[in-house]
Amino acid sequence: MAPQLDGYFKQVDLMADSFISRLRSAVAIPSVSADPDLRPKVVAMANFLEAELKALGASVEKRLPGKQPGHPNLDLPPILLGRYGNDAKKRTILVYGHYDVQPALKEDGWATEPFDLTVDEQDRMYGRGSTDDKGPVLGWINAIEAHQKAGVEFPVNLLMCFEGMEEYGSEGLDDIIKEEASKFFKDAEAVCISDNYWLGTEKPCLTYGLRGCSYYSLTVSGPAQDLHSGVFGGTVTEPMTDLVRLLATLVDNKGKIQIPGLNELVAPLTDEEKELYNDISFEMSDLFHSLGSETSIHLNKEDTLMARWRYPTLSIHGIEGAYSAPGAKTVIPAKVIGKFSIRTVPNMEPDKVDELVFKFVGAEWKKLSSNNTMKCELQHSGNWWVASPKHWNFSAASKAVERVFGVKPDLTREGGSIPVTLTFEQATGKNVLLLPMGSSTDAAHSINEKLDKRNYVEGTKLLGAYLHYVAEEAQV
Length: 476
Ligand SMILES: C[C@H](N)C(=O)N[C@@H](Cc1c[nH]cn1)C(=O)O
Ligand SMILES: [Zn+2]
Ligand SMILES: [Zn+2]
Known about the structure:
Elements: H1 5-14, H2 16-27, H3 39-55, E1 59-63, E2 67-68, E3 71-75, E4 79-84, E5 92-98, E6 118-119, E7 124-126, H4 130-150, E8 157-163, H5 173-180, E9 190-193, E10 205-210, E11 212-221, E12 227-228, H6 229-232, H7 239-248, H8 271-276, H9 284-291, H10 301-309, E13 313-320, E14 331-332, E15 335-344, H11 350-368, E16 373-382, E17 385-386, H12 392-405, E18 410-414, H13 420-428, E19 432-434, E20 450-452, H14 453-475
Parallel strand pairs: 5-8, 5-9, 9-19, 10-18
Antiparallel strand pairs: 1-4, 2-3, 4-8, 6-7, 7-20, 10-17, 11-15, 11-16, 12-14, 13-15
Helix pairs in contact: 1-4, 1-14, 2-4, 4-14, 5-13, 12-14
Bound molecules: the ligand C[C@H](N)C(=O)N[C@@H](Cc1c[nH]cn1)C(=O)O and zinc ion (ZN) (2 copies).
């Protein structure tokens, strides 16, 4: 099966160093979508990808989604639409990835410069975006180049959609996907997204579900400016005190969400679904390895996986305006903004979640009898997604995993969110597969994010092999 793959694999091995250089150039561009000041860098990253694709003979079009909501002077970065190959006899596959990254500062605790790809003696490649999602996006480009250099015919027509706002709720992308479903994406027969992670470090997986994400801010303000706590402490209602009390009402320290009605929206667990968890290759030690601690809420694998995949969670992320530098500044912050998000699951409707959140926060605020002002706002939300893995798209990926890694992949769901997955499925009407490249220890979104060289190189083989098996599936 797929005999041309041997030549392709050999070429990928030969090109490993140049693929790492490509990743180094990409990581060096701090394309942080959440930081308006770094928006030119997000655009620079789009230009980098466009140039790489064009150099390989792909055609690239840009779609400009307009201004960022709430920022009338800030342009959203371009959405890149690429095409490689246009042969009516071949299958057409649409792949999606994102070229923006989470924020990263050395002083957050990184051991190396976050935007300087650093490879250690165990071939771990550290850098912001290495695994999420620059490595996987470059994996598709590497696959095109290795086919060309090996003289192996590219097995499918490849459509590409790469965006620069995924880490900020994919602002502007939904409308463009809907618009292009009958235009640029019209030939697509299936969709593949490489933007999540294996459950452990050894066994690859194929993913058929994601949680949604509804992200909120809580703004508490009172005094006109920050105050001296010695002079004004005890005389003023402190916004920070109000905010921490309010945040503390949302969730207990065992992860139980305290918002009435929210847990009742969750689809009940069936016996059939419960069975699925037994067979998944995952140990609590995998979790401890990823956490770097043994501070888990649950004691066994099943409860842990269910908490990650099929139950909602509420996380408190940070407080803007609070004093956070080292030292002991005795300030009373005048205005603080708390940030929290809820990962949503079937059958939670985002509008209903918002309604319950606003009602609860309003009631808890009232109980504080504060004379400060409080505003609770939705920042962005994206829906959950669960699909059927019984499709040729998944069979092709399963064969590719077996060919590259010699094992059958686990079928998993993912606790994270890729808001546009559901949009792709609904707008194109095609099956969507998530085919991860990185492992559970990659620390996406965290300090010291990395991608193992093995995952990058074998992952590039995997993406190419998947396309070959997709082409074979067409002949069945
Ligand atoms: C799974 C994917 N690589 C990812 O990290 N997605 C983000 C998407 C998001 C949602 N709100 C803000 N960003 C995530 O799951 O946090
Ligand atoms: Zn991602
Ligand atoms: Zn991410």
